[in-house]
Write a sequence for this structure.
């Protein structure tokens, strides 16, 4: 690995080099915006050549994706902490959706996902197998006994897909005029929450 540039402080490893590239990209995006940030900007921020950046990332979109991914890790930790004490599946999912819709646009690194093309996590990438699997893993971290609620591992994949599709729509195409918190919560309570609740004994008996 070449040690030229880097502000006179060459990285000690490839991992450190990649992280410094990611951090430099985040700074450039803060100044120029995601669509105007180029590999040349990142290289200039670090005092290295474009070729040095290319050794670690093939495209600027790959670096931006890593910037967003690192923000996502911290975000999920805070989401799970926010849900502590909510053991009901329907309540946890609705509250989690509310947290995501209101928080993601305000998170500098996470909001990048809303500005990328359709391959991003909140574009067509939201329905890839990897994105759905990640969503299911996130749901497993909720303070919910999914098995006791009658929701198995395969169900979590389906639930994760529906959540990702709904989040994509809510984030990319908000209602006009926008829903306030009470209106959005009422919408989710009416149309999403019932799918996560067991039918009552009375309803089960009536269907026989």
């Amino acid at each position: 690995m070449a040690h030229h540039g880097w502000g006179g402080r060459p990285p000690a490893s490839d991992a450190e080099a990649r992280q410094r590239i990611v951090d430099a990209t985040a700074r450039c995006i803060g100044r120029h915006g995601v669509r105007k940030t180029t590999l040349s900007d990142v290289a200039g921020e670090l005092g290295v050549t474009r070729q040095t950046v290319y050794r670690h990332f093939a495209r600027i979109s790959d670096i931006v994706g890593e910037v967003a991914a690192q923000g996502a890790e911290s975000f999920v930790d805070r989401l799970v902490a926010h849900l502590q004490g909510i053991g009901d599946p329907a309540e946890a999912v609705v509250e989690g959706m509310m947290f995501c819709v209101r928080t993601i646009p305000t998170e500098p690194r996470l909001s990048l996902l809303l500005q990328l093309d359709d391959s991003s996590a909140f574009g067509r990438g939201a329905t890839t197998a990897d994105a759905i699997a990640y969503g299911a893993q996130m749901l497993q971290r909720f303070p919910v006994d999914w098995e006791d609620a009658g929701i198995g591992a395969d169900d979590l994949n389906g639930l994760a897909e529906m959540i990702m599709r709904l989040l994509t729509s809510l984030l990319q195409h908000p209602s006009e005029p926008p829903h306030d918190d009470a209106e959005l919560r009422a919408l989710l309570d009416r149309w999403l929450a019932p799918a996560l609740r067991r039918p009552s004994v009375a309803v089960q008996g009536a269907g026989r």
About this structure: The CA atoms of residues 23 and 67 lie 7 Å apart. The chain has two domains: 6-58, 67-197.
